[in-house]
Design brief:
The chain has about 325 residues and is of the alpha/beta class. It has 2 domains: about 15-150 and about 300-310, Rossmann fold, CATH 3.40.50; about 150-290, Rossmann fold, CATH 3.40.50.1400. About 40% of the residues lie in helices and about 10% in strands. It contains 11 helices and 8 strands. A 4-stranded parallel β-sheet has the order 2-1-3-4, with helices on both faces. Strands 6-5-7-8 form a 4-stranded parallel β-sheet, with helices on both faces. The structure holds coproporphyrin III (HT9) and fe (ii) ion. Coproporphyrin III binds near residues 22, 42, 230, 231 and 268. This is Coproporphyrin III ferrochelatase. Its main location: cytoplasm.
Length: about 325
Amino acid sequence: MGDLTPEGERAPRYDALLVVSFGGPEKPEDVMPFLEHVVRGRGVPRERLLEVEAHYQRFGGVSPINQQCRDLIAALDVDVPVYWGNRNWHPFLEDTVRQMADDGVRRAAAFVTSAYRSYSSCRQYIEDIERATAAVPGAPEIVKLRHFFDHPGFVAAMTDHTRAALERLPEELRDRARLVFTAHSIPISMAETAGAAGGAYEAGLRRTASLVAAEVAADRPWDLVWQSRSGPPQIPWLEPDVCDHLEELHAAGTEAVVLVPIGFVSDHMEVVYDLDVEATALAERLGLPLARAATAGTHPRFVRMISELMAEPEPAPCPATCCPAPARRPR
Ligand SMILES: CC1=C(CCC(=O)O)c2cc3nc(cc4[nH]c(cc5[nH]c(cc1n2)c(C)c5CCC(=O)O)c(CCC(=O)O)c4C)C(CCC(=O)O)=C3C
Ligand SMILES: [Fe+2]
C-alpha cells in the first residue's frame, strides 16, 4: 500500500491517526472506578489506592490528562481524520475503534502518548490495541508508530522547557542549579525486561536526559530519579525517589534544582501532584529553590514530531518477546 516516493520507497499511507492514551477521570464519582480499572489484577494495596484517590479529589476529581489529549489533537496538523482512545477511561479505545470501523477507516497510524519502552508504556498499549481490534468486526489495521524518546522534536521541546524553568530561578543561582530528571518508577522486574534486551526503559530515559542536559549546558550536573511508586511495599521498584533525592542534594549543599519530568509527555496527575504539590512542599521546607520544567504538551516542535513519525517508513512491530507482561496477581 502507498505511493512511491521520489526515492522509489513505498511511503506509508494511513487514512487516519489514532491517539492512544492512558485516560483519566473528569468528575469526582469517576475517580474510584477509574482507579479500579487501572489496577485490576495488579496487586496494588487498597491504602495506596485511597491515597491516590485523594490526589485526584484534591483537584475536584478531574485528571488533567484527557484535556491535554484534546489540546494535543487540536494542535495537530495532519491531513487525515484524528481519533482518540484510552486504556483506562472514556473514550475507551474499543469504542473509538468501533467508530473508526463505522467511518470506513482501513489503516490507521497509532500515536501512543508514552515515549519509552516497558510493559506499562509499550507492550500493554499493544495489547490494548489488539484487544480492541479483536472485539470490533471490520476494525481497521492499526500500525503503532515508533518510540520517540530520542526524537529531536521531543528533545527540543524538553530543552526549551528546561531553559525556561532555569529562567524562573533567582538569577544568582541559575548557573549552579542542578537538573533533576524524573520519570514514573516501575517494578525492577519490569525494568529488567524492558525492550528486546532488557533495561530499555532506564536506558531510554538516560539517553533523553543526557541529550537535553547537553543542549542546556554541557557541564551542568544532572541526575535521573523516580517518582510515583505504586504497588505493594515488598516488591522493589526503581529508586531513588525524587523526594529522597532532593533531601540528599540539599544535605550535600546543592543550591537550586530544576525538576524535569522527562518521563511524561504532558502534565499528568503524577506531575501536578507528586511534583508540584509534594516535591515542591518538601523543597520549600528545606529552603531549596526549585523550578519545575513544563512537559512537552503542545510545544510546536513536539506536535510536528507526530507528523514526522507518520511520514517515516512503517516501523517494524516490536518482537513478541519485548517488554513481557509481569505475572498477574489475583484480584
Ligand atoms: C511507566 C508508567 C507510565 C508512563 C507511561 C505512560 O504514560 O503510559 C505511567 C503513566 C500513567 N500512570 C497514570 C496513573 C496511574 N498509574 C498507576 C499505577 C502504575 N503505573 C505504572 C507505570 C506507569 N504509569 C505502574 C507499573 C503502575 C502499577 C500498576 C500497574 O502495574 O499497572 C495508578 C494506580 C494508583 C497508583 O498510582 O498507585 C494510577 C492512577 C497516568 C494517568 C495520570 C493522570 O490521571 O493524569 C499515567 C499517564
Ligand atoms: Fe502509572
